[in-house]
Amino acid sequence: MFVLPAFAVRSPGYLGEGDSARIRIIDGETEITVPMRAIYMLRDILNGMANGNSVTIRPFHEELTMQEAADFLNVSRPYFTKSILDKGLLPYIVIYANVHP
After folding, report:
1. 39 exposed, middle or buried (CB, 10 Å; 0-12, 13-18, 19+)?
2. Is 71 in contact with 78 (CB distance < 8 Å)?
3. Distance (Å) of CA 13 to CA 20, 28, 30
4. DSSP readout, 21-56?
5. Cβ count within 10 A of residue 21
6. Residues 85-94: tens digit of each pLDDT
7. Residues 44-72: what's their mean pLDDT?
8. Which of 3, 4, 64, 75 could cross-link 69 (Cys pair, CB 3.0–4.6 Å)?
9. Which of 25-34, 62-71, 78-87, 90-99 shows the highest mean pLDDT?
């Protein structure tokens, strides 16, 4: 059984009328303002976890090797190169670290 963490959301943003929401932690006095995008992201993360999926959060501008990106997407490196990079679905840069004069 999946149990939602102990927090409550109450604001016009929660009703779809604003772009942020106030969150109060039920077991404390802390109250914070959170962008609705973060609320939706948290909802998606919790739903994914509830369905037994693993969740990974990485910095947006983090650079990965081709192998790391393929592993992250759970595909082979050749598939990643041919089906994603070569078709222009993700931006990338080429670094020739092993080229000798």
Report:
1. middle
2. no
3. 5, 22, 19
4. EEEEETTSS-EEEEEHHHHHHHHHHHHHHHTT----
5. 19
6. 999 998 888 8
7. 86
8. 64
9. 78-87
